[in-house]
């Protein structure tokens, strides 16, 4: 089971995240997401636990709990939306140049 944890302190690292979930069962992995350029925490991470029961127990008991002065949000991780051609789907679609480039007659 993959778990999403947000509103983490910027001081929380992989080890601290792992230690937070260990009392609830086996932790396969715990990773705090960091900025590519600075290496600084982005304030969220992911934990993988092999047991759904343990994962659900951890979610129930840790969601909203104050950790290092911040109330963390803990939930089941959603699958990352697949993107085609490098752009996200939906949202803000704009038309440039009147009717779009393909509709012009020369």
Task: Give an overview in words.
- With 106 residues, this protein is an alpha+beta fold.
- Helices cover 18% and strands 25% of the residues.
- The protein is globular and about 35 Å long.
- It has one domain: RRM (RNA recognition motif) domain (Alpha-Beta Plaits, 2-Layer Sandwich).
- It is built from 2 helices and 6 strands.
- The longest helix is centred in the middle third of the chain and has 11 residues, at 52-62.
- A hairpin with a 6-residue loop joins strand 2 and strand 3.
- The strands form 2 sheets. Strands 2-3-1-6 form a 4-stranded antiparallel sheet, with helices on one face. The protein has a two-stranded antiparallel sheet with strand order 4-5.
List the SSEs and their pairings.
Blueprint: E1 2-6, H1 14-21, E2 29-34, E3 41-48, H2 52-62, E4 66-67, E5 70-71, E6 73-76
Antiparallel strand pairs: 1-3, 1-6, 2-3, 4-5
Summary tags:
106 residues; alpha+beta; 25% strand; two-stranded antiparallel ribbon; 4-stranded antiparallel beta sheet; 2 helices; Alpha-Beta Plaits; 18% helix
Structure in a nutshell:
The protein has 106 residues and is of the alpha+beta class. Helices cover 18% and strands 25% of the residues. The chain contains 2 helices and 6 strands.
What is the percent of helical residues?
10-25%
Give the total of beta strands.
Answer: 6
Point out poorly predicted stretches: none
Q: From the alpha carbons, calculate the radius of gyration and give it in angstroms.
A: 20 Å
Query: What structural category characterises the helix and strand content?
Result: alpha+beta
CATH structural architecture: 2-Layer Sandwich
